[in-house]
Specification:
Residues 17-314 form the NADP-dependent oxidoreductase domain. Belongs to the shaker potassium channel beta subunit family. The chain is an alpha/beta fold. The protein is 38% helix and 13% strand. It has 13 helices and ten strands. It is globular and about 50 Å long. The termini are far apart.
Length: 336
C-alpha cells in the first residue's frame, strides 16, 4: 500500500481506501461486511469512509463493530453529515448547527470512537448560511471530535468560499469528495485546479463506475445475477444510467488494455484515478473479500502516457466532462 498526504496537512492516508456506501447495512450482511473490512486491513488499507445516512446509520454501526479492537491511532476514519437520518424530520437533515452537532455525537457513538479523522459536508446546503455551517465545524474541531474537515461534491466557487471561512475560523478544510472515474471527469475543468490552489485533495468515490468499469456488464445482455444492478438494496438505481449499450461497448475496449498492463479491469480503473496528483485516495467498496483485495492491489501502479492515451481513445466521447454536473448534485431545498 502507498500513502499520500490529505490536502495541505500532515495527515497521510492510504491511496486506496475502503468505503461502505451501498454495502454495509443493505447489500452485505454484518458478518460478510466484517470479512471485507478485515480483507481491507490485510491489504494495508488504513482509511475507511462512511456516512451517517448510509443505510440510515446502520453502515456506521457495522463499520464501528468491524474495526473494534484495532489500534485506533493506526486508522483514519471518515464520515459525513447532511442527508436525512433518523425519523427524517425538518431538522434531521442539512448543515445547520443543530444537525451537525447532533450528527457528530451520533456518528462517534456508532463508530465507537472519540473522534473522526475527517468530518465531511456530504453536500452543499443552500438553506443554511455557510458561516453557520463553518462555525459549527470549527467548534467540533476545537472540541476534538474531528481532526480535519472536508466536503463532498462542492463546486469550485463553494470550495473557495468554504476555504476562506475555515482559514478565518482557524481550522483546515483539506478535502473534497467527488465522483471521479475514467467515464466521469467533471471535476477536471474547475474543481481540481481550484483545489490545487487552495491545498485541497480529492477523496474520490466510484472510481470503478459503480462496477461498470469491471467489464462484467455486457452490451445486449442482462446484468449478471447477484450484481449491483440486480439488487434494489445495493444501489441499482445509481447504476442504471451507466448500462447503455454504447457505453458498455466502449468499456469492453478497455479489457485488452488492462490485460496488457497485467491488471484486472477494476485495478486499471482505480489506478487511472490515482494518476491524478490531486487525488489523495480512491474509495473502493466490495461485497466480497476478494473484490476488496483486488481493488487494493491497484495501489502504486503507474500508467504510461501511452496507456492513458489508449484509454481516452477507447472511451471517446462517452466520457462525461461537464462541470455543471457538480452543481447539480446538491439539492437546492432540504430533503425531508
Amino acid at each position: 500500500m502507498e500513502f499520500r498526504y490529505l490536502g495541505n496537512s500532515g495527515l497521510k492516508i492510504s491511496e486506496v481506501s475502503y468505503g461502505n456506501w451501498v454495502t454495509h447495512g443493505s447489500q452485505v450482511e454484518a458478518d460478510a461486511a466484517k470479512l471485507c473490512v478485515n480483507a481491507a486491513l490485510d491489504a494495508g488499507i488504513t482509511t475507511f469512509d462512511t456516512a451517517d445516512t448510509y443505510a440510515n446509520t446502520a453502515a456506521e454501526v457495522i463499520l464501528g463493530d468491524a474495526l473494534e479492537g484495532q489500534r485506533r491511532e493506526s486508522l483514519e476514519i471518515f464520515t459525513k453529515v447532511y442527508f436525512p437520518t433518523g425519523p427524517k424530520g425538518p431538522n434531521d437533515t442539512g448543515l445547520s448547527r443543530k444537525h451537525i452537532t447532533e450528527s457528530i455525537n451520533g456518528s462517534l457513538k456508532r463508530l465507537k470512537t472519540d473522534y473522526v479523522d475527517l468530518y465531511q459536508c456530504h453536500r452543499y446546503d443552500y438553506e443554511t448560511p455557510l458561516e453557520e455551517t463553518m462555525q459549527a465545524f470549527a467548534d467540533i474541531v476545537r472540541q476534538g471530535k474531528a481532526l480535519y474537515i472536508g466536503v463532498s461534491e462542492w463546486t469550485a466557487d463553494q470550495l473557495r468560499a468554504g476555504h476562506k471561512l475555515a482559514t478565518e475560523l482557524g481550522f483546515q478544510l483539506i478535502s473534497n469528495q467527488p465522483q471521479y472515474s475514467m467515464i466521469y471527469r467533471v471535476i477536471e475543468g474547475e474543481v481540481v485546479p481550484t483545489s490545487k490552489e487552495l491545498g485541497i485533495s480529492q477523496v474520490v468515490f466510484s472510481p470503478i463506475g459503480q462496477g461498470v468499469l469491471t467489464g462484467k456488464y455486457k452490451p445486449g445482455e442482462p446484468p449478471p445475477a447477484g450484481s449491483r444492478a440486480t439488487d434494489p438494496n445495493g444501489g441499482s438505481n445509481f447504476i442504471q444510467r451507466l448500462l447503455a449499450d454504447d457505453l458498455l461497448e466502449r468499456i469492453q475496449n478497455l479489457l485488452p488494455i488492462a490485460a496488457d498492463e497485467g491488471l484486472s479491469p477494476a485495478q486499471l480503473a482505480v489506478a487511472w484515478v490515482l494518476q491524478n496528483d490531486n487525488v489523495a485516495t480512491a474509495i473502493t467498496g466490495g461485497s466480497k473479500p476478494e473484490q476488496v483485495k483486488d481493488n487494493a492491489a491497484a495501489a502504486g501502479k503507474k500508467l504510461s502516457a501511452e496507456t492513458l492515451a489508449r484509454i481516452d481513445e477507447a472511451l471517446g466521447d462517452a466520457v462525461e466532462r461537464d462541470p455543471q454536473r457538480t452543481y447539480e448534485t446538491s439539492p437546492k431545498t432540504r430533503l425531508v
